[in-house]
Amino acid sequence: MERASSGVPGWAPLRVLAPVVLLATLAGCTLTPTDDYQDAPAGEPLKVGPDMSSGRIQPAFPIPTATAGGALSDGEFELPRPPDMTSEILEENYVVQEVSGQTWLLVNEVPGRVWPAVSAWMTERNLGVNEENPAAGLLQSDIVNYSRSARDLVGLPDEEQASGVTLLQARISPGVRRKTTEIQLRLRERATAPDSLLPWPTQSDRRPQEKNLLADLGDFLEAREDTKSYSRAALNIDSRPQVKLVAREGEAPYIRLDLDDDRAWVEVKRAIEEADIPLVDFDRSAGTFYVDFRSEEAREAAWWNWFGDAPEPEATYLVELDQSDGAVHLTTRQAPEYEGNDRSQGLLSELFDYLY
């Protein structure tokens, strides 16, 4: 007797086995309960030792208190988006920037890796390293006058025409944005050679020369990208963030910027632009940016109302900067004339992503 065949060996067993595999797969995926977490008990509060501070252990986005009926006591609450981890990447790794008389080289790297590279630059340019203080992030050169190549680098006249002595200081500090470093340089003129590390001056009258030196340093660091090293001494550099999101119970959250007013203004403007938030207008004297932070649904509704091209951005939200307790506080609020859903907390969260 001949057996009927499909032309594919083993077809009949596979046809029987397929439903079994499908049921096993469904049992492992779709039949697993997904809401058990709702009945999970709350954990114990985090405890710290008696000699430790709990100031930094606080929720960045505290959950609003719920009423007995389960509704939020403060009305609607917009869940913030997770931080944009790609926003920390700079378009260029070495950029000379200048704001309000301050010039620095911005490096897309942590201070611990920048410190030995700056020291190597000073050595290879015949500036030398005579004094250093990693805790303060300071490096101080030898006397520049004693080396012809060093004099040419910093733009000094011939040795016999120079009066006094000149040296170079480098200051390495964490940048405003995470995982970045800012390097500043100062040319110091003294009557005689100092016998210790000089205090860092906040202002400089040699900015053109220092800007050229920063550009040369940037080229040097870029050429040595494949030979990076890490300095254990640089672990002592103060790495406290200059941008913090402060959210205390019972208070409106805000962003604290430990920067001067001009630098804070520039950083916030950059964050608004990089976040692609339409900037409608600004008032520098009042410290206010007027932006359009409507939801996509609100923008689409406005577009349908116009029956044509997309309407111009509207000033629906205010980003306000105010000096307080030695820092700049950034707050967001809905524009008085805007009647849409309040998305102020979402705006604050998005700006923080691009500021820090």
UniProtKB/TrEMBL annotation:
Pfam families: Lipoprotein_18 (PF06804). This is Beta-barrel assembly machine subunit BamC. It comes from Tamilnaduibacter salinus.
